[in-house]
């Protein structure tokens, strides 16, 4: 059991409400900073927020896309050295957007439920970490914080 507190609400979820969110170890801090401060640059990292969860990080000429989505204006997106996919639903796992932004042989990190869309994807399970394309990637679980039916597998 995992207890999550949001304001004055307390929600208890069991392990089966976890979703395989795959993020580079520094991305959560960058995402929070981006949302809180509406920044487009943090130090040497340039951040471009497209739509929903589609975010582009650029550092030292290398580009990471998180959840590229075709609804985004992909003409403004740069080709990806690494793509991280956080869930298996269409607004996170969009095969067309991945194909458009992926450089040749660029790795795509996915959970096992994404293999049908990205057959050559690198599968990571919650709790796993590894070096991918020169970046340290950690897979962490996500929890719904809204009471009721889970929106994540």
Tell me what the structure shows.
This protein has 153 residues and is mainly β. 12% of the residues lie in helices and 35% in strands. It has 2 helices and 12 strands. The chain starts with a strand and ends in an 11-residue tail after the last strand.
Counting DSSP E segments of at least 2 residues, the number of strands comes to 12
In what order do the strands lie side by side in the largest sheet? Answer: 4-5-6-7-8-9-10
Low-confidence residue ranges? 1-26, 29-39
Q: Give the distance, in angstroms, between the N- and C-terminal Cα atoms.
A: 16 Å
Provide the residue-averaged pLDDT. 76
Helical content, roughly? 10-25%
Shape: globular
Please compute the radius of gyration using only Cα atoms.
15 Å
* Beta-strand residue percentage: 25-35%
- Helix and strand element order: EEEHEEEEEHEEEE
What are the salient characteristics of this protein?
about 150 residues, mainly beta, about 35% strand, 2 helices, 7-stranded mixed beta sheet
What's the structural blueprint in terms of helices and strands?
Blueprint: E1 2-6, E2 9-13, E3 19-24, H1 27-37, E4 41-42, E5 45-49, E6 55-59, E7 62-66, E8 82-84, H2 95-101, E9 108-110, E10 122-123, E11 129-132, E12 135-142
Parallel strand pairs: 7-8, 8-9, 9-10
Antiparallel strand pairs: 1-2, 3-12, 4-5, 5-6, 6-7, 11-12
Quick recap:
This protein is 12% helix and 35% strand. With 153 residues, it is mostly beta strands. Strand 4 and strand 5 (45-49) form a beta hairpin.
């Amino acid at each position: 059991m995992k207890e999550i507190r949001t304001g004055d609400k307390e929600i208890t979820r069991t392990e089966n409400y976890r979703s395989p969110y795959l993020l580079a170890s520094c991305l959560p801090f960058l995402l929070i900073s981006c949302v809180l401060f509406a920044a487009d640059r943090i130090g040497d990292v340039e951040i471009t927020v497209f739509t929903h969860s589609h975010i582009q990080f650029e550092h030292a000429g290398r580009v990471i896309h998180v959840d590229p989505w075709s609804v985004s204006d992909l003409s403004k997106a740069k080709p990806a050295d690494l793509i991280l996919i956080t869930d298996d639903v269409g607004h996170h796992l969009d095969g067309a957007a991945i194909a458009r932004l992926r450089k040749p042989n660029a790795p795509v990190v996915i959970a096992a439920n994404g293999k049908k869309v990205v057959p050559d994807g690198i599968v990571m399970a919650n709790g796993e970490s590894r070096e991918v394309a020169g970046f340290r990637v950690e897979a962490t679980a996500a929890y719904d914080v809204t009471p009721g039916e889970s929106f994540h597998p």
